[in-house]
Specification:
The chain is mostly beta strands. It contains no helices and twelve strands. It has a single domain, classed as 7 Propeller (Methylamine Dehydrogenase, Chain H). It starts with 8 loop residues before the first strand and ends in a 6-residue tail after the last strand. The relative contact order is 0.15.
Length: 158
């Protein structure tokens, strides 16, 4: 894509219908290749996501999250993927939890996975919608706002 030439990226991610990139300078950028409502190819110019320059990691697919240099974890929740333009750059993320000891972030089954400094691995359920299941599969109670501990990857495996 011509608008991405000569840009140095630390990582790239896909979130629903948008592309998101983390530049080496710690800034986040988002763009869209196609108008999903009409199917028309309309590559957009990347737009900076906020003003922060302290992002260090990025994960996307059914959910989009990013890790800041201070160890805090942030997530975007965008309801309508069929908007004409990407709204990632204009809608702020929400902080996940209160801890500042996160060292890595990833995506799994439409939700977020994060690794804490102590080696514990956590799964953050998508509370807004279940990306892979229909509405009929939804439980009667809302998903917890707290992550689920998966395992400690540094624990002694005797």
């Amino acid at each position: 894509m011509p608008t991405l030439d000569n840009t140095r990226w630390k990582s790239l991610a896909w979130y629903r219908m948008d592309e998101v990139g983390l530049r080496e300078d710690g800034t986040l950028w988002a763009w869209r290749y196609q108008n999903r409502a009409t199917g028309e190819s309309v590559p957009s110019k990347p737009a900076q996501v906020g003003k922060d320059k302290d992002w260090v990691a990025l994960a996307g697919l059914g959910a989009l999250a990013a890790l800041k240099a201070d160890g805090s974890l942030w997530r975007w929740s965008l309801a309508d993927i069929f908007e004409e333009k990407s709204s990632i750059a204009t809608k702020p993320p929400a902080r996940l939890g209160t801890h500042n000891d996160w060292v890595a972030v990833g995506s799994l089954m439409g939700s977020i996975v994060s690794l804490a400094a102590d080696g514990s691995l956590w799964y953050w359920w998508d509370r807004d919608r279940d990306y892979y299941n229909s509405d009929s599969d939804q439980p009667l109670l809302a998903a917890s706002r707290k992550p689920t501990r998966i395992e400690n990857i540094l624990a002694d495996q005797r």
